[in-house]
Each structure stands twice: as C-alpha cells, then as structure tokens.
Amino acid sequence: MSDETDSPLVVEELTKDYGSVVANDAVSFTVNRGEVFGFLGPNGAGKSTTIRMLLGLLKPTSGSAKVLGADVRDEAALTEAKRRIGYLPAHLGFEEEVTGETMLDYHGAMKGEGRRDELLEVFTPPVERPIREYSTGNKRMLGLVQAFMHDPDLVIMDEPTAGLDPLKQEAFNEFVRDERDRGTTVFFSSHVLSEVRRVCDRVGILRAGSLVELENVDALLHRSGKHVRVHANGAAVAEITALDGVIRPERFAEGVQFIYAGDVNALLRELATHEIQDVELGEPPIEDVFTHYYGSREDAAEGDRSGEATDPTDSAGGTDV
Amino acid sequence: MFETVRYEGKRRLRGAAVLTAGVGAYAGFIIWYFTVLEGVDYEDVFSNLPPAMLEAFGIESLSTIEGFLGAQVFNFVWLLGLGLYFAYVGGGVVARDVETERMDLLLSLPVTRSRLLVEKFAALLVPIVAVNALGGPIIYLFVVAVGETIPPDHLFLTHLLSVPFLLVCAGIGLVFSVAVDRAAIAERGAVGTVFVLYLVESVVGGAEGYDWIQYLSPTQYYEPTPTLIDGSFEPIDSAILLLAFGGLLMISQALFERRDV
Fold first, then answer.
1. Same domain, yes or no, for A78 and A50?
2. Do A168 and A279 reside in the same domain of the chain?
3. S-S: A31 plus which of A37, A63, A299, B198, CB 3.0-4.6 Å?
4. Domain limits for position A227
5. Distance between CA B69 and CA B225 in Å, rounded?
6. For position A232, which CATH number holds?
7. Contact (CB<8Å) B105/A59
8. Which residues face A71 on adjacent strands?
9. Could you tell me if residue A142 is inside a domain?
C-alpha cells in the first residue's frame, strides 16, 4: 500500500489464548515479497488459527500482524488490503445449492475476476454444475480459482493440496512456482513436509503454538529418516528391527513400523533377505521429524516418544535455526 | 456496492415465492370459508370465551369480512405465523454461514463486517416485501371474487404496517444469529423468544399491575384488525417498532464486530 517495500506479512508475537488452550503462543515471522513460504505443523498445531487471525476472522489476544501493510486489528485498512489478498480456507464452506459459476460471479463482483478464464483452464471444476455435486478435489480447484482470479499480491492458503489428486497436485506446484515468478507472494500451510519442500523458498514449523523457521528443509528431511512399515513374520521383524538406524519400532499384528535413519540401501538389502508381504517407505510424520531434529523440547509430557529420539542438536535451544 | 444484497436477495426469491403462494392459498381458503359461514351467528359462539382468549386471537367482529380476515388471516398468519417465520429466517442469516464456514470466505472478501451484515439482512426484504406486495392484491382479488368488498386503503395500510413488525421479528433472529455459532440454536432461540413474547402479551394484557410486561412484545405494536375495519392505527406503534428494529440491528452489529468467526 503506502510503502511497497514492506514485507507482505509481518507477524509479531501473535497470540491467541482461548482460556482453556493457547492456540498460538507469541508466533513471529516475516514473509518477504515474492517468496513462497510454507507454514508447516502437525494437525492441531494452530496453523488455521494463525491464518484466520491474519484475515481478521479471529481477534488476536495479543501481539500484532501486518498484512500488506494493514494492521489486522484495523478493520478498514485490512478490508482495503483484502482487494489484493487471495484466500483459500482449509474447509471450503461454499453454498452448496449454487453453481460454481454463480459463486465466482459473486466473488468476482466483490473483488475482481481478471484472471478467471485463464485460471479455469488450469484448474477445471465443473462450474456450470451446483457445488453440492462437486468432489473434494473439484471444490479445492474452485477455491483456487476464487483465490487467484483477482490477481492478488498475496495469497494465503490453508492446506491447499488436501483433496487434490497427484496430477492436480503437480499442476498446483507448477502453478505456484509460476505465480511466484510473476511476483505474487504465497503463504500456505501444510502438514506434509515433502509437499512444501518442492515449492517453498522458506519453511517454518508451528509446534506447540510457536513457530520455528527451518533453513534447510532437504537436510532436515534427510536427517529425519524414513517412515517404514513392513508386513512380515515375527522372525523377520526381529532381524529387521535389529538394523542400525531403526528408531522406535512399533509392532502390530502383521508386522512392524519404525523410523529409519540409516542408509536406505542397507535397509533394502536386509528386506530382500526375508519373506516380506508388503512394505511402505515414506516421509515420517512432521512431529517425528521435528522431535528427531530438535530433540525433545519441554517434552516431559510427550515423554513416550522423546526417550529414543537421537538428538543431533543441542536439545533446548531450538527456537531458531 | 450491493453485490451481497443482490446475490443473497436472488437466493431468497424462491423461498419468497413459496411463502407468498402458501399464504395466498391459505387466505383464499379462509375467504371461501367466510362465505360458507355466512348466516351463522358466530359472534354468539365466541362470546362465551374468556376475554383473554378473545384478545389473544384478536376476535372482534367476525361477521364482517374485515373482522374475519383480521382474526383468521392477519392475527394468525401475519402476527404469529410470519412473525415466527422471519424470526427463524433471521436466526439463520449469520449463524448458518458461520456453521458451514462459508463466513470465512465471505469475510476474506473486501467487505467490512457491518456492511456484510446489513446487506445479508437487507436480502430478507425480498420475502417481507413479496408476501405483502403480492399477498395484499391476492387477498383483495379473492375478496372481490366471492362478492364481498374491503376498502383497499385499509388493506394496504394493514400490509404496510406489518413491515416494521416483521423487521423487528427478523431483527430478534439476527441478534441470536450473531450471538451463537449454530444455526439451529439461533433459529430456535429466535422463534422461542418471539412466541413467548406473543403469549406473554396475550396473557398479561388484562392483568393489573403486570400489564407493563405486554409492552415488551413486538406483537403489542401491530394490531391488524382495527386497521382493516376502520383504517385506524397508532403512528407511535410503528415508530416504536422501527426504533426497536434499529436497536436490534445495532446490537447485532456490535456483537458481530467483536466476535471470532
């Protein structure tokens, strides 16, 4: 607005205290112009709370935030800024009876729709049909069109890829990169680290209500290992879990699951020597990544997982990296 | 400007049409029934009823079409039925969108909360105006069709004066709508409140010492039967209703501004 060099998002000590639970505890971060910022956290970490405070939907208990230069507590300024903000909520509460077209007409009349047709070529919800007939993916696509159609300077998205099939997800990643190259600032939340890794310039993790910025996501992912789930008999399980790098094995009826921080090839060689019914290799849950990387912080309460976590950094100091 | 009232107003058209058709059909039935009853000395029948009951149903002069319409259509449909209906609809205006999280999307648009609230509420004028502007002529035509007459200016006034009353009922709904998160609770709360006020007004009307309570009810300030019969009405009543409506709207605004959605 007045000062175009300002960062589009400046969040300082933003706190939301519901009395019984502190959803956001002094969250601070800055998103720079023209970058894609990934806002990570396990489900329930308070990501949506932060996002909804940024849009003036929730009133902060304390702290402040500026969105495109507008204080989130100043309704008039924030309303004006919303002309240049796109928003995709986690849950798309569209009115079910209207067609996608009617919804877009209404939102377009309110904030502009210069890029609507262009976007409907990338994302292809059936706009002529009532929204109640939409699949989750179609709703998401309609939401994306709605969020970008007025060519905003800042786009805030809450779990944007939830419900998109892998092909559309790839199209989405491509799209976000292109948007960034056009100068749009993108801020989005996710609980899947590998997903944001592909598109984000920077990533922050919200954990227990406060944000930690991660500078090197690839290194983090690499160090945090893989989540492995093996279906095999008892003897095989015993030998597999004896491997170096197996962390926190958990047995279940048909096999075992664990975090594997060693060499993947060694694991595959070991697996090849056994009769395996099924195996899944994937990214560990974000909370595990975090615990693994930073060790247990104030974690006596979450104690069951902290004991075995190897601890590559100094355990207590992990509030900024 | 006014995108919301246009959008929401259009969305209310079908409901308004169904409502108007339903009310019209009921009025038609009542007017036909009046011709069937002709010759029956039904004022005698009702003279045995307790005065509170006569008062509650606004039974005055049932032998004329005006009195009959006043009791059977206006006191019953407009005062009670539509009053409750618009309280109910008002209850859903904000709470339903909050419940479905549609409000998140709406408030991400460049519109202030107060403007959004006013425009969403203004869309309720579609059914309020439709049921009166179309319901009036429908009733008039039915009356003429059965060979009776009714002064058109009295009928017009009766409809016009119902608007502030219906606004107050919808306004009570709106306050509930911004105060709670769930549409069903807001709707029930609003309907319950208007109904209890109506009952209280009917019951305490004759009770000395407690008759002030009746002034709390919006139904106290809209009396269709005398207006229909001789065109009489108290301008102060309408003024009180409009003032109350303004107050309810302001309370809703203040609550909506402060709340988290």
1. yes
2. no
3. A37
4. 220-304
5. 8
6. 3.30.70.100
7. no
8. A66
9. yes
Contact A107 B109 (CB under 8 A): yes
Distance of CA B56 to the CA centre of its chain: 16
- What are the helix and strand counts (H, E) for chain A? 12, 14
Domain assignment present for A189: yes
**What ipTM does the predicted assembly reach?**
0.88
Which residue in the set B102, B108, B257 is minimally distant from A95, CB to CB?
B102
Q: Mean pLDDT per segment of 10 residues, for chain A of length 321 residues?
A: 69 92 90 92 87 96 96 96 96 94 96 95 93 93 95 95 80 91 94 80 81 70 80 89 87 89 88 90 73 50 35 34 29
Kindly determine whether residue B107 and residue A55, on different chains, have CB atoms separated by under 8 Å.
yes
Question: What are the distances in angstroms from CA A90 to CA A94, A150, A159, A165?
Answer: 12, 20, 5, 16
Residue of A nearest to B5 (CA): A106
CB spacing of A57 vs B101 below 8 angstroms = no
Alpha carbon distance A35, B122 (integer Å)? 41
Unique residue bearing structure tokens 């006191």: B75
Do A174 and A290 lie in one domain? The reply is no
pTM comes to 0.84
Give the DSSP letter string of A144-188: HHHHHTT--SEEEEESTTTT--HHHHHHHHHHHHHHHHTT-EEEE
Total domain count for chain A? 2
Q: Determine contact, residues B162/B169, Cβ cutoff 8 Å.
A: no
* Contacts with A83 from chain B: Cβ below 8 Å: 110
Is the same domain home to A270 and A153? no
Which DSSP helix (H) or strand (E) runs through A214? strand A210-214
- How many H helices and E strands in chain B? 14, 0
